[in-house]
């Protein structure tokens, strides 16, 4: 059986949407390491809390690999990159409701085995058969 895609990215997107739909302010709790790109002046005890509300960030993109956006910190625009495996939680500033995740120590992502896809064309009578179809 192939390894499933981790749920973390999906859950982060869902809680973010829930916060926005309810007029709440979503915040990310990030465990900072060498793989994160955040303003280090705001890191305390190896963690940073980031406001990811649409009014506070520009070009927010959350996928299964990372959270990426631009924001101003003390008036200076900075690009922020947070790998999904470094997100320790997403919660609303107003009531603290959200979801928190276990973050393993180290700078490498957890091993995720991707499904194996056979890109070789099938061999028929010693010759490769094309995978293309004729469309008329």
From TrEMBL:
The keyword 4Fe-4S does not apply. One of its GO terms (molecular function) is peptidase activity. It comes from the Bacteria. The lineage of its organism: Bacteria, Pseudomonadati, Pseudomonadota, Betaproteobacteria, Nitrosomonadales. This is ClpXP protease specificity-enhancing factor. The keyword Lipoprotein does not apply. GO terms for biological process: proteolysis. Keywords: Hydrolase, Protease. It comes from Methylophilus aquaticus.
């Amino acid at each position: 059986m192939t390894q499933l895609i981790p749920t973390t990215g999906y859950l982060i997107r869902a809680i973010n949407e829930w916060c926005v739909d309810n007029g709440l302010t979503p915040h990310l709790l990030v465990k900072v390491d060498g793989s994160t790109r955040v303003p280090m002046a705001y890191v305390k005890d190896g963690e940073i809390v980031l406001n990811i509300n649409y009014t506070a960030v520009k070009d927010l993109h959350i996928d299964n690999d990372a959270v990426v956006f631009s924001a101003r910190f003390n008036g200076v625009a900075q690009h922020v990159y947070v790998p999904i495996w470094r997100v320790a939680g997403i919660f609303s500033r107003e009531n603290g409701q959200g979801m928190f995740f276990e973050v393993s120590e180290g700078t490498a992502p957890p091993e995720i085995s991707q499904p194996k896809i056979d890109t070789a064309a099938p061999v028929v009578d010693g010759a490769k058969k094309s995978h293309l179809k004729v469309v008329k």
